[in-house]
Amino acid sequence: MKQQIKFIRLPQIDAEEIIEHMSDPRVAEHMPLLTFEWDETAVAKFVAAKEECWSRDGLGHWAILSNNDYVGWGGFQREGDEWDYGLVLKPNAFGLGKLISKKAIDFAVADERIPFVTFLLPPSRKNLSALTRFGAIFVDEVDYDGSVFLKYRLKTE
C-alpha cells in the first residue's frame, strides 16, 4: 500500500496519542533532552510552544499522518538565523523517515525563507547515510541545552 503522507497542525492530534508516542522508550533512546514524563500538562506545553513558533515565524512543527494515522511530529523550527529540521516518529513508523523527510525538504526548497536547513542529531544516531544522500554535510559538534549533537547542513537553494 502506498503511503499518503500529510502534514497537519499538532492541536489536531489527541493529547493521549502524543503521550503514548513520547512515552515509548524506543523514542526516548535518541532524544537526550527528553528527561521528563509526558502527561497532559507536558503535551499542552509542548503544543503551545510549537504553535508559538507558527505565530512568531510563520512555520513550525507539524503532526504527521500516514494514510490518515498519526505517526509522529516534525518540521522546521527557527534557531537564530537557521531553520532546524526535526523528526520524531512512532516506533512503528521509523521506516517512513526518508519519505517524510523528502516531503519536508521539498517544502523547504520551495520556501524562499529557507536557504538551508540544519539537522541536530545525537551521537547515538549511527546510521546517517540517508542524511548524506540528501546532500547534507557535517558542520560540527554543538552543545544544545547541555547535550552534544552532531550538526549537519543542507542547502535548499
The total count of helices amounts to 5
Q: What would the CATH topology be?
A: Aminopeptidase
Radius of gyration: 15 Å
Number of β-strand runs: 7
The CATH architecture term is 3-Layer(aba) Sandwich
What global shape is seen? globular
List the helices and strands and how they pair.
Blueprint: E1 5-9, H1 15-22, H2 25-28, H3 40-57, E2 61-66, E3 69-79, E4 82-89, H4 97-110, E5 116-121, H5 129-133, E6 137-144, E7 147-155
Parallel strand pairs: 4-5
Antiparallel strand pairs: 1-2, 2-3, 3-4, 5-7, 6-7
Summarize the structure.
It comes from Roseovarius tolerans. The chain is α+β, with helices and mostly antiparallel strands and 157 residues long.
Overview of the structural elements:
- GO terms for molecular function: acyltransferase activity, transferring groups other than amino-acyl groups.
- By secondary structure, the protein is α+β, with helices and mostly antiparallel strands.
- It has one domain: 3-Layer(aba) Sandwich (Aminopeptidase), CATH 3.40.630.
- Helix content is 31%, strand content 34%.
- The protein is built from five helices and seven strands; from the N terminus they run βαααβββαβαββ.
- The chain has a seven-stranded mixed β-sheet with strand order 1-2-3-4-5-7-6, with helices on both faces.
- Helix 1 packs across helix 3 (40-57).
- The longest helix has 18 residues, at 40-57.
- The chain is globular and about 35 Å long.
- The termini are far apart.
- The model has no long low-confidence stretch (mean pLDDT 91).
